[in-house]
Amino acid sequence: MIKVIRQWTSKVILIALMLIAIEIPPMAVNFALRYSKTNQLIVDGFMALFIGLMLAIIWWAHRTYEAYNQLGQPAGIKVGWIIGGYLAIILGMDVLSYLNQLIYHQTETANNAALGSMLGHNEVITIVFCFSAVVLSPIAEEFIFRGTLTNMFFKRGNIWPKVVLSGIVFSTGHMSTNPISFLIYAYMGMVLAYVYLRTDDIRNSIAIHMINNAIAMYVLLVQVI
Fold this sequence. Notes:
By secondary structure, this protein is mostly helical. The chain has nine helices and no strands. Helix content is 81%, strand content 0%. α5 crosses α9, α6 (123-152) packs across α8 (179-199) and α6 (123-152) runs antiparallel to α9 (202-224). The longest helix is centred in the middle third of the chain and has 30 residues, at 123-152. The radius of gyration is 18 Å and the shape is globular.
């Protein structure tokens, strides 16, 4: 019993450290924004640091994912699942966003508002941040919230506990100001987890995440540029 408790405790601590780590790179962007109009060299340095931190997190998360992987070798990319998963995310999040606006009068989540505030101030910051949002962040987050988290807890056949856990923990990494905005990201995380677990290939959830973020970033860019 003590051994089991220690194992679960170490797993919880590891996930907590990953959640903290994924929040660190954006700090470099915030520092870069302070010099966006005055010192381009400092901006470039902070953005290089940002990319370096993201790559380090991806490496760490991938190594951890491989250590806990219950699903074996990737089963292959499933285009149908990618399209279906993305459509499920869009439909569900549209309904939840409508409820968020109806009940809490919020036209966008605090997370999207924070992302939008980082765009349009400096060309280098905008380009690097968009690249990270579309490519680096989906890879890092999928390895953490789907690849590591869903394999670390519960047995292989227990899909739904894994799905729910992934969605809840994923949403804690995004800014939520009310229960519905929390559900928006929890729902997205659960769909991504379901696709990953049903297809046995994390590349499918990564692809969905990339598509979703690419369209979201395009919408934000249109608003600020």
